[in-house]
Design a protein that fits this description.
Layout lengths: L1 E7 L1 H7 L4 E4 L9 E11 L8 H13 L3 E3 L2 E3 L8 H4 L4 E13 L28 E16 L6 E3 L2 H15 L4
């Protein structure tokens, strides 16, 4: 298993909001395909996320599912209802696991929409995908009920056995499976 540090709110979006692409300026995955623990970094992305329509839609959907009323610029909750915004602000912890299923360059995307199944050199690009980047295609998000504190770093790194065992046990306890 590998680990990838991602700034909030993008880490939340990968695990809870349907973000199926992580954009990077280079292919940090090489030929690795498989499970990746998502670490919510200490830093918060204080700018580029403000213009993300997919992110705002995912946050609004999570808020409505938690019983909130959504209005331009904010949310309101009844007292006692869970507030999903807490999960948007977890930092310095592993919050879930996804599968890295492929990596491709943005320029291989065809019309940023569905393509013929027989076309193997072009990819459908997600609403989460940016131009001029490498797209790490992610699938099968598995959130952890209790985040695991962890120190992040740059790149897609190998995890130590003890941390892998902790994550696997947490997933097994929550889902009855492992990763």
């Amino acid at each position: 298993m590998r680990i990838l540090t991602v700034r909030q709110p993008w880490a939340w979006a990968i695990i809870h909001g349907g973000k199926d692409v992580e954009n990077r300026v280079r292919n940090i995955a090489g030929d690795y395909r498989g499970p990746v623990a998502i670490h919510a970094g200490i830093a918060y992305d204080r700018g580029s996320h403000l213009e993300s329509e997919p992110l705002r839609a995912a946050q609004d959907k999570a808020a409505v599912a938690a019983g909130a009323e959504v209005y331009p610029g904010g949310y309101t909750w009844d007292i006692g209802q869970p507030d999903p915004r807490k999960a948007w602000n977890i930092h310095g912890a592993i919050i879930g696991v996804v599968d890295l299923v492929s990596v491709h360059k943005a320029e291989t995307c065809q019309d940023w929409g569905p393509v013929d199944a027989g076309t193997i050199d072009h990819y459908w690009c997600s609403p989460w995908a940016d131009v001029d980047t490498h797209h790490l295609k992610l699938a099968n998000p598995r959130p952890l009920a209790t985040p695991i504190p962890y120190k992040g770093a740059l790149g897609l790194r190998r995890l130590d056995k003890e941390t892998i065992d902790t994550i696997t046990a947490a997933l097994a306890a929550e889902t009855g499976e492992g990763s």
